[in-house]
Design a protein that fits this description.
This protein is an alpha+beta fold and 359 residues long. The strands form 5 sheets. An 8-stranded antiparallel β-sheet has the order 1-2-3-16-15-17-13-14, with helices on one face. The protein has a 5-stranded antiparallel β-sheet with strand order 4-20-5-18-19, covered by helices on one side. It has helices at residues 9-34, 52-115, 171-178, 238-242, 267-271, 307-317, and strands at 122-125, 129-136, 143-150, 156-160, 182-185, 189-192, 195-198, 203-204, 207-208, 220-225, 230-233, 246-252, 255-258, 261-262, 279-283, 289-294, 321-325, 333-335, 338-339, 353-357. The chain starts with 8 loop residues before the first helix and ends with a strand. It is elongated. This is Phosphodiester glycosidase family protein. Keywords: Glycosidase, Hydrolase, Membrane, Transmembrane, Transmembrane helix. Residues 178-358 form the Phosphodiester glycosidase domain.
Length: 359
């Protein structure tokens, strides 16, 4: 380390400045604390537009007004929410009443047609189908009526025997095989070539089983369209039937009712046989279906119902259209796993087509 004597004057000054720097800084701080400098502002360089107090008051008033506006907005939103809830509740009430009122004509009509059938002895109710079974006993003949509402068009199907043309099974066998809750025999048939074949035009699974045949000898087609509505009648050509968009159907004779009016019964069917077990399918104006199956102890024409008697009954019940299906020993009515009617053969007859109903 060099001695002070060996330093130049400039170096000595620097040394003393470094040594005295802490003391000078301390002294300066003490002086500032004990004797604060008097500062003067140049007020001429800035002239405010309004007094600071006035500005503060204006800002305060603005904040108060904003706060009041917020409170009012919140209150308005709350009132609007309450009004919305009240309006929604009122609209729901109106809608519920409208639904009830819209259903009133249907309910009234249903009660009217049901009252003519009497009290149901058995009922099936699901989200797909409604079935009510009634006894029919006007004194001349006996039988059963089954009123059916298809809530789902697919709750009714037509099947061929065991699924193949020419094969025949009883309606009970068909019901059990396909898992149906109810079933009736459908169209007529002809025996030949070692089998039992559907009569004339038969439509199933989107096609004609043996092709389309123009209606002849008073034969009529009857079935359902894709919307689950009963369709039927006589058709001269395939295009006429195709326009009805059939889903399935079979053929027999004759047509009994059309648009609420009785249709002429062919002379042959008035006498051959005069009376017989019968199976009839009909519809109401609201597209509910009605099945009539009458009893008879043989096919000789001295038991069962005449077609004119069934026409009178159907007219009284208020149906729209009605079609006679195969009858005699073929008449079958199955519901909930049991045979409802008494087959004239003493047992169920195997037939090639069946109308089935599903839960």
């Amino acid at each position: 380390m060099r001695s002070i004597a060996q330093m130049t004057p400039k170096q000595v000054n620097r040394l003393f400045m470094l040594a005295l720097a802490p003391f000078i800084g301390t002294a300066l701080c003490i002086w500032l604390l004990t004797s604060p400098p008097q500062l003067q502002l140049n007020t001429t360089s800035y002239v405010p537009d309004t007094d600071l107090t006035q500005q503060s008051g204006t800002i305060s008033q603005g904040l108060d007004q904003a706060s009041s506006t917020v409170d009012q907005t919140i209150a308005t939103i709350e009132k609007t929410g309450q009004l919305y809830q009240q309006t929604t509740a009122a609209m729901n009430t109106i809608r519920a009443k409208a639904v009830v009122q819209a259903g009133l004509p249907e309910d009234i009509y249903n009660r009217r047609i049901t009252s003519k059938l009497g009290r149901p002895i058995e009922t099936v109710q699901t989200d797909r189908i409604s079935i009510q079974l009634f006894k029919v006993n006007p004194g001349i003949y006996r039988g059963h009526a089954m009123k059916i509402k298809l809530k789902d068009p697919n709750a009714m199907k037509m099947v061929l025997g065991n699924g193949q043309p020419g094969k025949a099974v009883t309606t009970m066998q068909a019901v059990n095989y396909y898992g149906a809750v109810a079933g009736i025999n459908a169209g007529g048939y002809a025996d030949g070539n070692g089998g039992r074949h559907p009569l004339s035009t038969t439509f199933i699974n989107g096609g004609y089983v043996t092709g389309f045949q123009p209606s002849f000898k008073d034969l009529a087609f009857v079935g359902l369209n894709q919307s689950g509505q009963l369709i039927g009648g006589k058709f001269k050509n395939k295009e006429q039937l195709d326009r009805l968009n059939p889903k399935f159907g079979a053929t027999f004779v004759p047509v009994l009712m059309k648009n609420g009016n009785k249709t002429p019964i062919p002379l042959k069917w008035k006498t051959s046989p005069a009376r017989a077990p019968r199976t009839v399918i009909a519809n109401y104006k609201d597209d509910q279906l009605l099945v009539l199956v009458t009893e008879g102890y043989n096919e000789k024409g001295d038991s069962g119902a005449t077609l004119e008697e069934l026409q009178n009954k159907l007219e009284h019940l208020g149906v729209k259209d009605a079609y006679n299906l195969d009858g005699g020993g073929s008449s079958s009515l199955i519901l909930n796993g049991r045979v409802v009617n008494r087959p004239s053969d003493g047992r169920l007859r195997p037939v090639p087509t069946h109308f089935l109903f599903f839960k």
